[in-house]
């Protein structure tokens, strides 16, 4: 109970929230991270980070903690209708490895959390309301907790995921269903799987499956499909999820893939609809207002088809940390509330178009690869998307968010 005052309050201890706190710490700004869960959220088991994310992790000073993970060397995409296999190389023009790297989500979160003082992350903290009040010509965010505590903040950053309370306060359009859902899991082979470090993907009408080795004994896998008809609920029990994938959706997939599903650690299985925010809501919506803004999925939820959700959260963190940190340093290591509206506005304008285009590119990528086997879709997929659009998307993904040098 009572009222406390903080410079920066971050809602959510996911990738965006923790990374933003680390970025601010490098400038000397202390942030309080409020997390409604009892501990770090690790739903999803693993994620794949492209080179742009590793540049952000370099800026945050944590990439060395994940050095045991290695780049994906090659990818193979199998057309389930024709049996055609397309090879994708992740070697650059100079022979450099430019491939993505798959990591345990828990390892990434722990690497970020270790950079922060223990007291800066407050778990089991649930927010009941957000408001603002004017104080000496500037805006102060008032965060009401379910416990009765009130927290006043010079800056409030919503990193509270796809169903963000902060984004609702800003008036952003709600995320919408993509029409697809995905299962994710982690397979464990105590004696080693022997798969090698490559990415395997299988594409057919209304479905897409894939797997990639995380370590010599663990494989991350996913299965994406057209969502069941309205009114049909997705299985929640891990055993039911595994059974439905094997018996209904993946029964005609190669044994290599079904064996991976059978080796799943059931505690890692989840099945959820894929959602995204309309890109025009990002381009024209209020991504910040006064001294409040959003980052990560709270700003730009997107489908996983380009593997950029976590990557963009890390970029957000570095850029937001740099804008706030620069103001902090220039004002004698003091956070000046009346400057925060302009500071957050600069961050938003730097991010708005990039993330909107990636939302659109991710949706297009998923739609093209899963939407039918007729000659028109095959032509769009093979002659246009893979040859012309995908290379442009890959080049757009490559991005250096810069350093954190104060």
From TrEMBL:
<protein>
    <recommendedName>
        <fullName>FAD-binding domain-containing protein</fullName>
    </recommendedName>
</protein>
<comment type="similarity">
    <text>Belongs to the 3-hydroxybenzoate 6-hydroxylase family.</text>
</comment>
<dbReference type="InterPro" id="IPR002938">
    <property type="entry name" value="FAD-bd"/>
</dbReference>
<dbReference type="InterPro" id="IPR044560">
    <property type="entry name" value="MOase"/>
</dbReference>
<dbReference type="InterPro" id="IPR036188">
    <property type="entry name" value="FAD/NAD-bd_sf"/>
</dbReference>
<keyword id="KW-0560">Oxidoreductase</keyword>
<dbReference type="Pfam" id="PF01494">
    <property type="entry name" value="FAD_binding_3"/>
</dbReference>
<dbReference type="GO" id="GO:0004497">
    <property type="term" value="F:monooxygenase activity"/>
</dbReference>
<keyword id="KW-0503">Monooxygenase</keyword>
<feature type="domain" description="FAD-binding">
    <location>
        <begin position="7"/>
        <end position="326"/>
    </location>
</feature>
<dbReference type="GO" id="GO:0071949">
    <property type="term" value="F:FAD binding"/>
</dbReference>
């Amino acid at each position: 109970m009572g009222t406390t005052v903080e410079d920066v309050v971050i809602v959510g201890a996911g990738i965006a929230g923790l990374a933003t706190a680390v970025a601010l710490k490098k400038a000397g700004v202390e942030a309080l991270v409020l997390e409604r869960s009892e501990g770090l959220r690790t739903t999803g088991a693993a994620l794949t980070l492209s080179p742009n994310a590793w540049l952000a992790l370099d800026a945050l000073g944590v990439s060395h903690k994940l050095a045991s993970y290695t780049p994906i060397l090659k990818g193979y995409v199998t057309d389930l209708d024709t049996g055609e296999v397309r090879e994708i190389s992740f070697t650059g023009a100079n022979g450099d490895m430019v491939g993505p790297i798959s990591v345990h989500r828990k390892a990434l979160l722990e690497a970020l959390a270790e950079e922060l003082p223990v007291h800066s992350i407050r778990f089991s903290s649930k927010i009941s309301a957000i408001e603002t009040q004017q104080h000496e010509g500037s805006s102060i965010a008032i965060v009401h907790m379910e416990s009765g505590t009130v927290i006043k903040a010079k800056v409030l950053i919503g990193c509270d995921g796809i169903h963000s309370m902060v984004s609702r306060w800003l008036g952003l359009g709600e995320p919408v269903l993509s029409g697809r859902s995905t299962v994710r899991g982690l397979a464990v082979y105590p004696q080693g799987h022997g798969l090698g470090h490559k990415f395997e993907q299988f594409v057919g009408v209304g479905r897409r499956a894939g797997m990639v080795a995380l370590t010599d004994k663990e494989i991350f896998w996913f299965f994406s499909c057209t969502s069941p008809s309205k009114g049909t609920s997705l299985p929640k029990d891990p055993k039911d999820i595994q059974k439905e994938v094997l018996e209904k959706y993946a029964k005609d997939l190669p044994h290599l893939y079904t064996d991976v599903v059978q080796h799943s650690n059931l505690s890692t299985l989840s099945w959820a609809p894929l959602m995204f925010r309309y890109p025009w809501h990002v381009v024209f919506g209020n991504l910040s207002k006064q001294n409040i803004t959003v980052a990560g999925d709270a700003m730009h939820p997107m489908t996983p088809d380009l593997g950029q959700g976590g990557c963009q959260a890390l970029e957000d963190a570095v850029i937001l940390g740099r804008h706030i940190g620069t103001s902090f340093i220039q004002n004698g290591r003091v956070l000046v509330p009346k400057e925060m509206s302009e500071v957050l506005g600069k961050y938003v304008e730097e991010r708005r178009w990039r993330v909107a285009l990636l939302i659109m590119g991710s949706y297009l990528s998923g739609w093209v690869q899963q939407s039918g086997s007729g000659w028109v879709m095959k032509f769009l997929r093979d002659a246009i998307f893979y040859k012309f659009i995908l290379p442009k998307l890959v080049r757009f993904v490559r991005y250096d968010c810069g350093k954190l040098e104060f």
